[in-house]
Amino acid sequence: MVSADSNAQSEQEPEGFGSALVDEAARRDAALGDVDWASLPEGAVRGAFEAPSGRLATISMGTPGNPRVLLIPGATGSKEDFVLMLPELAAAGYFVVSCDIAGQFESAAAGPENLVPPRAHYDYDLFTNDLIAMLDAEAGPAHVVGYSFAAIVAQLAFTRRPGKFRTLTLISCPPEPGQSFRGVQRVGRVSRWVNPRIGAALMIWGIRINVAHVAPNRLRFVRYRFRFTRRSSVSDIIGLMQHAPDLRAALAAASLPKFVTVGEHDLWPLALHRRFAQSIGARIAVYRGGHSPSETSPYQMSRDLIALYGSV
After folding, report:
1. Is there a contact between 218 and 34 (Cβ–Cβ < 8 Å)?
2. How far apart are CA 131 and CA 110, in angstroms?
3. Which helix (DSSP H) or strand (DSSP E) does residue 280 occupy?
4. What is the side-by-side strand order in the sheet with 142-147?
5. From residue 198, how far is each of 112, 211, 238 by CA, in Å?
């Protein structure tokens, strides 16, 4: 939660608990049923963006020319992960764009073989350059929201194009550099011995068998996405997350508003997320749910983003 009270907090306690505030947004999140994630809200537009790695499928909503919000999903995710947030942000006066990252779902054809010169693997430069191209496609800065792996990509893009960012929001961001999986609860201790190919297989297997106990429509949709998502892109991303860059000093030195959001039952312990947010000088909100606040707490997250953007 971003509020006047939270703005008065000290740098040692840059925290607001989104899950602690009972308001209309919280009630709407609590009342969420089994959402049809393949169905777009009225006014949303499907499109594509020609990125350096290939064509990225997009969804946009709002009036072009209004302040931009870019919503970037993580590994095995897609633009639809933000579908409940699009109308909220658009109604608040923003032009909102989400995309499938290279190799994922309807952007599966985008990949390293399309680069000049071609490369064999998906790497940080590929994803970062795609995001920078989206930022550079229009004049002026944008509000950037990166989810999970894309939160790392958003940080990298900021270090290269700080002037293109109005704000930086990191959803469920891996909170430690290096082997970022080492802090994951229960499995972190063995993650150092798991290679990217096996890690990707375990990740996909866990999603397919519904370890997170998502609702039937959600499970149907995420299984459907795997018909398109390239296994090689997931494997390469797992490998990249085993070598996450340490950008904390650069972010701490930046004056733009920074916001970390996370579910209270995330993969990583909340203590690590709080420590990360403090190290970069970011506010943090903790919502009910797990690794996907944009899906389980979309109205509270939208409320807090709109408050953040209005403060700029």
Report:
1. yes
2. 13
3. helix 270-280
4. 15-16, 283-287, 258-263, 165-171, 142-147, 68-72, 95-99, 54-61, 45-51
5. 21, 17, 9
pLDDT for the residue 183: 79
Q: What is the pLDDT of residues 8-36, one digit of tens each?
A: 333 334 455 455 678 999 999 999 999 99
User: Could you tell me if 258 and 167 are in contact, meaning their C-beta atoms sit under 8 angstroms apart?
Assistant: yes
Helix (H) or strand (E) holding 45: strand 45-51
CA 3 to chain centre: 22
- In degrees and rounded to multiples of 5, residue 111 shows phi and psi of -170, 180
Q: How far is CA 253 from CA 79, 173, 174, 256, 309, in A?
A: 31, 19, 20, 9, 20
Taking residue 139's Cβ as centre, other Cβ atoms within 10 Å add up to 6
pTM flag (> 0.85): yes
Backbone angles phi, psi at 94, to 5 degrees: -110, 150
Give CA–CA dist 169/114, Å, rounded: 29
217, two tokens: 């429509």
CA–CA separation, 173 vs 218, rounded Å?
22
CB 263 within 8 A of CB 279: no
What are the phi and psi torsion angles at 84 (to 5°)?
-80, -20
Nearest to 173 by CA among 14, 292, 9: 292
CA torsion through residues 213, 218, 219, 223, sign: negative
Instruction: Decide if 195 contacts 179 (C-beta within 8 A).
Output: no
Mean pLDDT across the stretch 72-93?
97
Alpha-carbon Rg of the chain, whole angstroms? Answer: 18
